[in-house]
Design goal:
mainly alpha, transmembrane helix, 653 residues, five-stranded mixed β-sheet, flat, 5 strands
């Protein structure tokens, strides 16, 4: 990646901090003006603001590319030559006859701003690297969530045919032509919608059995509203913006507003289908009562319980919803929001670092030709004289002096440009980056002696990461293979050390790839965690199981507490299932107190997935069902037979 691209990207990320604050302020004002029940308009405003957050850095970076000089500017060359002595803002020249001398300009503020911009510009490379690392980690989190959802779809079963027909009837009522699959899953406890071209609605088993037919139709109408509005595609773009601009608080606030208003829009459609807001609010409350496990609202999945349930119910049962704002009002509000772009554009032009001319009008343009070549013993031609007004700038290379003249140096004196053994001639920006990263010729020779041919970007990346040749030797010895320079820098940024790799190897995880080592470091799989697993009797875990344990929070005290309750022979997969479903030692103790002792792990998993707990058992016993087996409890729960159903049967005349 070229230096200009690095700088443009870095400045775009920095300027987005204040630009995003302006956009967020405009959105906050607009949301205060718009009626809280005009969900569609509020959703449109929030989506427009989030789209503007993605457009602004592109415009800022493009502006920087267009206005940035293609070659090293005079301030940069001067800073390279003598950082402690800044260049004068004008060069002495002879004014033409009859011209009045210009008054000296106050340059104190300009000098301070120039020095500040120079410091920021010198650290842009590290800023972009940190941003790239954050994007990579956010993408990994997003990818893992997506893979989990696809696995849920593959493992789900088709819903009963009567409910599939009900879904198709509701889809026709909403004017939808795309086929929608209805699946049921025991791994979820809230409905979810995913997919765009081939949409899927996932329903938990408890919802099919725990809600009335009318309530379930309302929930299905809500999920179909997501599909009709193409919310899945919009949510993917929204998640992309969150991944790229993860560092900006305004992005997360706007995303939260979008998700809240998206659910409100679907609530309005569901109420319009059922015709009764109070009944729909009761359906949401009943759905919440069946919920046992937490369901994240971020990522590509959309759930009927997204947002604040209390706020949604209050909105539904409150005063009658007013009409949405008029088209004129909506257009005015959108124009107000988008005008933030018009305000931000000139501010970008003022805030971005520029390279103004340093000489007065009477001085000729300063032309710099930087070339370094071995000094010939007897030069064939004398050096060209300096042009009037040119500023000689010495470059600290005793064996290869540079010439700065008003015209290009003769070809005889530019036999070999400064290359440092790299491809292509180095620019002034590259020289500054190498110096800022602390790259020395000795380090470059050490990398070459180890068989590498580093580029400028790789040297700068290694310098900022403090990845030395000694670190490379340690990692090569620990991994058993030779990583690339880019992989070395990434491992160094993540804190991967030879000691951590050797600890994994000692635990039986040999022939690890660089990606596996980085994954372990990112999740915190270190010596302490490995020792904790060995002490808990889980010293023979595979690498994937080790990662799952760490990601889910399976720790030594949790394993020990299960062993104290008699579950001392659980496999690694069973432990993962227990932790993922929320099977806690307290849950097992409550089942034991309720009379369910010596349950096998498979039965515990089924009961927890269906929401069977000690409270359900006590209610069934109060209604006369005692001494039920585990299979009978599972059958009753999956069929929707609960204490309320038994009470209704008993009260029937």
């Amino acid at each position: 990646m070229s230096t200009l691209v690095w700088q443009s990207l870095g400045w775009a990320l920095l300027h987005l901090l204040w630009q995003g604050a302006l956009v967020a302020a405009a959105l906050a004002v607009a949301l205060q003006v718009v009626d809280r029940r005009a969900a569609s308009l509020r959703y449109l405003l929030a989506c427009g603001a989030l789209a503007l957050m993605l457009v602004l850095p592109v415009l800022t970076g493009w502006h920087h590319v267009l206005t940035h000089p293609r070659t090293g500017s005079a301030p940069e060359v001067a800073a390279l030559a003598s950082p402690s002595e800044p260049l004068p803002l004008s060069t002495p020249s002879r004014a033409p006859a009859g011209a009045s001398p210009e008054a000296p300009r106050d340059t104190g503020l300009a000098f301070v701003m120039g020095r500040a911009l120079s410091v920021v510009n010198g650290n842009l490379h590290g800023l972009v690297l940190a941003w790239g690392l954050g994007v990579m980690l956010s993408s990994l989190r997003l990818l893992s969530g997506w893979l989990r959802l696809r696995r849920l779809v593959r493992e789900a079963e088709p819903a009963p045919i009567e409910w599939q027909e009900t879904l198709e009837r509701l889809a026709r009522h909403l004017g939808m032509t795309r086929p929608v699959r209805l699946l049921r899953s025991a791994a979820l406890d809230v409905p979810a919608t995913l997919g765009w071209l081939r949409p899927v609605v996932l329903l938990p088993v408890t919802v099919l059995t725990g809600l009335s037919a009318r309530q379930l139709e309302m929930v299905l109408a809500h999920e179909l509203a997501h599909i009709r509005r193409h919310d899945f595609a919009v949510n993917l773009v929204q998640t992309l913006v969150e991944t790229l601009l993860f560092y900006h608080p305004a992005v997360w606030w706007m995303s939260r507003v979008i998700r809240v208003e998206r659910e409100n829009c679907c609530d309005d459609i569901a109420v319009g289908t059922s015709g009764n807001a109070v009944s729909y609010a009761r359906a949401l409350t009943a759905l919440e009562s069946l919920r046992e496990l937490p369901m994240p609202v971020s990522g590509p999945v959309m759930s009927a319980l997204g947002g604040s349930l209390t706020a949604r119910v209050r909105r539904l049962v409150g005063r009658p919803a007013t009409r949405c704002a008029s088209r004129w009002e909506a257009g005015a509000l959108l124009l107000t929001l988008m005008s933030g772009l018009a305000v931000a554009a000139p501010l970008v032009a003022l805030a971005l670092p520029s390279s103004p001319p340093l000489q007065t009008r009477a001085s000729p343009p300063l032309k710099v030709a930087l070339a370094v070549a071995p000094v010939p013993a007897a030069p064939a031609q004398p050096p060209a004289p300096l042009a009037p007004g040119a500023v000689p700038i010495p470059v600290p290379q005793p064996s290869a002096p540079a010439e700065i003249a008003g015209k290009p140096a003769p070809k005889a004196q530019a036999k070999e440009p400064l290359r440092l053994g790299l491809k292509g001639q180095l620019t002034v920006d590259q020289l500054v980056e190498l110096k800022t990263a602390g790259v020395s010729m000795e380090q470059k020779r050490q990398w070459e002696a180890l068989g590498y041919a580093p580029t400028v970007e790789e040297l700068v990346q290694l310098g900022h990461a403090d990845a030395t040749p000694e670190y490379m030797k340690e990692m090569t010895d620990a991994l058993g293979n030779k990583p690339s320079l880019g992989e070395l820098a990434q491992m160094r940024f993540l804190g991967v050390s030879a000691r951590k790799v050797k600890a994994l190897v000692a635990a039986g995880h040999r022939a690890l790839s660089v990606d596996q080592v980085k994954q372990a470091a990112a999740l915190g799989v270190d010596e302490d965690f490995l020792q904790e697993m060995r002490a808990a009797g889980q010293g023979s875990l595979t690498f994937d199981q080790l990662i799952q344990f760490r990601a889910l929070g399976v720790k030594g005290p949790y394993i020990q507490a299960l062993e104290d309750l008699g579950y001392d022979k659980l496999s690694a997969d069973e432990l993962v299932q227990f932790k993922a479903l929320g099977v806690s030692p307290e849950y097992l103790r409550q089942l034991r107190e309720a009379g369910l002792d010596k349950l096998d792990p498979e039965a515990v998993v089924k009961m927890r997935a269906l929401g069977v707990d000690a409270g359900n058992l006590r209610k069934l016993r109060d209604e006369g069902l005692e001494k039920l087996s585990v299979d009978e409890l599972i059958r009753l729960r999956s069929s929707g037979v609960d204490a309320d159903f038994l009470r209704e049967l008993r009260e029937e005349p």
